[in-house]
Specification:
Blueprint (H helix, E strand, L loop, with lengths): L1 E10 L2 E11 L4 E5 L6 H9 L6 E6 L2 E2 L14 E4 L11 H6 L7 H14 L15 H14 L4 E5 L7 H17 L3 E5 L12 E6 L2 E6 L1 H6 L4 H7 L2 E4 L2 E4 L3 E4 L4 E10 L4 E7 L2 E7 L8 E6 L2
Parallel strand pairs: 3-8, 3-9, 6-7, 7-8
Antiparallel strand pairs: 1-2, 1-4, 4-5, 9-10, 11-12, 13-17, 14-15, 14-17, 15-16
Helix pairs in contact: 3-4
Bound molecules: adenosine-5'-diphosphate and magnesium ion (MG).
Magnesium ion (MG) binds next to helix 1.
Keywords: ATP-binding, Nucleotide-binding, Transport
Protein name: ABC transporter ATP-binding protein
GO molecular function, one term: ATP binding
Length: 303
C-alpha cells in the first residue's frame, strides 16, 4: 500500500503541494489530474524521493520513502518513475536500452523479458534500431518498457502517452494498463488526458490550488462533476441555472424554454459540436447534423 500522509512541498519557499494525503493499494491505478502547473509532475517526483519534503511522510508498505537528505541514491528498487522528459541511451538499440538494467548473468531471462516488454509497447520491429534514430513517441515507449523491465511494485508515470500519435495511442494504452493490472503493479499516472482515466483508473485525484480538490471514482466524478474544473476535464460543458450540463446532455427539441441561436458547427466524427448563444451566453451542445449560423433551436436538458 502506498500511503501518502500530509505531504507538503515547496520550491524555494513557493508552496506547490500542501497537505496531500491519499492511499493506493497494490495493483491500483490512480490518476492525478489538474491544470498545467498544478503540481502533478512535482507530486510524482516527490513520491519518488527526488526532493525532501517540508512536512509529511510517504510509505510503501512499511518502508518510508526518503528524499536526498536521508537517502544517498535517489529511488528504490520497488519503484520506477518515467519522467515527462525521458533519458535514454541514444547510441545503443531499443532492446539494449530496455534490457540495460537486467542481469546479464541470466541471458535467457533477460532476452525473454526484453521481448515481452517490446511486445507491450509495440516496438518488436525496432529491437535492433539505435534509439537516437527514433521519434519522440517511440522513445517514450522505450522509456516505459525500460521502467517495467525490473518488475517494480509501483510505477509513477508522467503523461506517459503525451508524445505518442493517435494511431498508436489507443492500443498502447490498453497494452500498458493491462500489463500493469495483470502484474499487480500499482500505478500513479499524471495526465491531462481523460482517455488515460476513463476506462482505466480506479481513482482520480484532482489537484487545484496546491491541494487535493477531490479524490473519487472517475465515474462518480463524471456523473457529479460539482465544479467547472472537474467538468472541463471530461469535455465541453455549460453552466445553466447553476447546474453543470455537458454538451451531450442538451438535446434539440421542437419547443422548450431554452432557445439557442447557432454560431458555429464543428465536425466531430459521429456528431457535430454546436456553439451557440443562450440568453446571451455561450452554449455548447451536440447534434447529429450541421446547422448554419443564425439558426434558432430549442434545447432540453436530458440526464
Ligand atoms: P504540472 O506537472 O501539473 O504541470 P509542475 O509540477 O511541473 O506542474 O509545476 C508546479 C509548479 O511548480 C509550477 O508553478 C512550476 O512553475 C513550478 N516548478 C516546477 N518545477 C520547478 C523547479 N524545478 N523549480 C522551481 N519551480 C518549479
Ligand atoms: Mg507536468
Amino acid at each position: 500500500m502506498l500511503n501518502v500522509k500530509n505531504l507538503t512541498f515547496s520550491y524555494n519557499k513557493t508552496p506547490v503541494l500542501t497537505d496531500i494525503s491519499f492511499k493506493a493499494k497494490p495493483g491500483e491505478h490512480v490518476a492525478i489530474i489538474g491544470e498545467s502547473g498544478s503540481g502533478k509532475s512535482t507530486l510524482l517526483k516527490v513520491l519518488y524521493g527526488e526532493y525532501d519534503l517540508d512536512k509529511g511522510h510517504t510509505y510503501w508498505h512499511d518502508q518510508e520513502i526518503l528524499g536526498p537528505k536521508h537517502n544517498l541514491v535517489v529511488g528504490y528498487d520497488f519503484m520506477k518513475y518515467v519522467a515527462q522528459e525521458f533519458d535514454l541511451m541514444p547510441f545503443i538499440t531499443v532492446a539494449e536500452n530496455i534490457g540495460k538494467f537486467l542481469s546479464r548473468f541470466y541471458p535467457e531471462e533477460k532476452a525473454r523479458r526484453t521481448a515481452e516488454l517490446m511486445e507491450v509497447v509495440e516496438l518488436t520491429k525496432f529491437a535492433n534500431i539505435k534509439v537516437k534514430t527514433l521519434s519522440g513517441g517511440q522513445k517514450q515507449r522505450v522509456a516505459l518498457a525500460r521502467a517495467l523491465a525490473k518488475q517494480p511494485e509501483i510505477i509513477l508515470l508522467d503523461e506517459p502517452f503525451s508524445h505518442i500519435d493517435n494511431f498508436k495511442k489507443q492500443s498502447l494504452r490498453r497494452n500498458v494498463f493491462k500489463y500493469l493490472k495483470n502484474n499487480n503493479v500499482t500505478c500513479i499516472v499524471a495526465t491531462h488526458d481523460k482517455e488515460d482515466v476513463l476506462g482505466f483508473a480506479d481513482r482520480m485525484i484532482v489537484l487545484n490550488n496546491n491541494k487535493i480538490a477531490v479524490n473519487n471514482l472517475p465515474e462518480t466524478l463524471y456523473k457529479n462533476p460539482n465544479t467547472p474544473l472537474i467538468a472541463s476535464f471530461f469535455g465541453e460543458f455549460n453552466v445553466i441555472n447553476d447546474n453543470i450540463i455537458y454538451a451531450n446532455q442538451l438535446k434539440i427539441v421542437k419547443q422548450s424554454n431554452l432557445k439557442a441561436t447557432v454560431l458555429c458547427s464543428y465536425f466531430k466524427g459521429h456528431f457535430y459540436l454546436i456553439e451557440g448563444l443562450l440568453n446571451n451566453e455561450k452554449v455548447f451542445f451536440e447534434a447529429s447534423k450541421k446547422y448554419t449560423e443564425g439558426t434558432e433551436l430549442f434545447l432540453k436538458i436530458i440526464d
